[in-house]
Amino acid sequence: MAVRLYYGLFGKDIKMAAPDETDNPFYNVLRSMAQRIDYLPGKYLLQRHTLPTSVGWESTIQRAAIAAQSRKDHEDLYSSLMNAFQQHTLVGEKVVLYYGFAGLPEDVRKKHIEEAFNKTTEAVQPSEFSIAYPLAIHDQERLKALEDAPPTLTVCYAETDKVIFLFSSVRSFNERVPLDRNQFDDDDKAKLADYSELIGVRAIRRQCFDYVIYDVNRQLVELRIDCPDGMPSVQKQTALQRINAAFNQLVVFADGWSPFGTTPHNFHALMENLYKTPSEGTVFQLGFTASTDKSSSNNGARLLRRKNVDLRKDEFHIGGANNVKDISVYTIGVEWKSDIGVNNPMIIVPGSVKMLYSPPIIFPELYIRGCLTTDQYDLISKKIDKYFQ
Amino acid sequence: MRDLVNQFRKDWAEDSALAEICMRVYNHLANPSNRLEHFSYFQLARAAQSDDDIRVSKALQYLSSPRCQVLSQLFFYFDVDSTWEFEPSDMAEFFKEGRFAHPRTGQVMDLNEISVAFATGAHFLEAEQS
Q: What's the pTM value of the predicted model, to 2 decimals?
């Protein structure tokens, strides 16, 4: 019998920095990477830099850090790894909401962007996060101390067509750890004798990089929140509300307008359009209702084995779909093939059948997963823009 | 079969957009090949070609009333992976209590958790049987 006490898997063998690591700056960047990048894509990134890897993050960090420091090109290598990390903070494993500048004339829009930039620039205060920036705090004791702090505005900067605001927070996740029964005393061991496996749940903390992005060309404000797969939805909602409130507090304008005062964009049409365009990406997850005049069913489909099969071409799905009068999609996952990384960039519009029954029909958020580079993320953004309406 | 189009116009003389939504839903259901075993709110909003949720909700309520019987209401509770349907008599009791109990866990739930769906109403079905 196994004792199941867990509800999430965030296990990465990240340990606190050993004292001798201070002499080698690569430890810092590698530990920052290990904190947020899954092991396989992380390993891929290191191999692309021709660094040695090993089994699991911890031994990989040790091998790669030593090898990196002794390389002739160690300065270039350091900035390249730093760049890979920074890109991941912007594009890796995000839940995304769009808000509009809907109906604002161009001059007012420009004024708001400038004002938001000026107000937030003034509001950036030195913090533990800004000292660590662009890297992450990875010492578990320091993270624990910062866990209850509100989102901290860490940096804001402008690019040609974007103004980017970074808020830092510490969030904790549950890690499932097998327990060694020898650590229990004899009395407890006897009580646990019926259990073949003992599993404990331990909180593991990490720094999250949450962004508010004014996208001038696309005329929207994007909220991009760190949301690794399996993050409890309560925690995701809390994170969204806290960033929303923190940003509002900084930038409510003289006219009372703030981007998050508006309703978020609705991704319902995006979901339907992607479903109806078989040439676009590969669908790996679908939730839909199928109705005829005699029966209706709720179908949540996930491929049992990926093998690059498209659920829209799944034979059961085709036979079934052709025999019904109506398919209403309430969740979809689509991925696009990429030569970079071990995962493909993907969009997941999450939803439940209930959302089709409860007006208003709004699907306000989506997950963007599998991206390692801003180019991959931009490709996904273009798909969203294309199929949004 | 009574023609309800004039009734919609009269009943909603002050809100022609709402009357229009009623007519679209009515016309959609009048064609038997469009009928589904039941309709979600979304499916009827699509048939009404409207994203005006306030008007569509009001129109569907009106079309389900004894005066029209174009639709009948169904009551669903969607859990994570199960669906329960409640009878109108259950609903009457829930409204009296102001709450209901989760059918499996017995936990007290808010009435807002119950979703309304729609079936083709007696107006069409009775007329077609006779």
A: 0.81
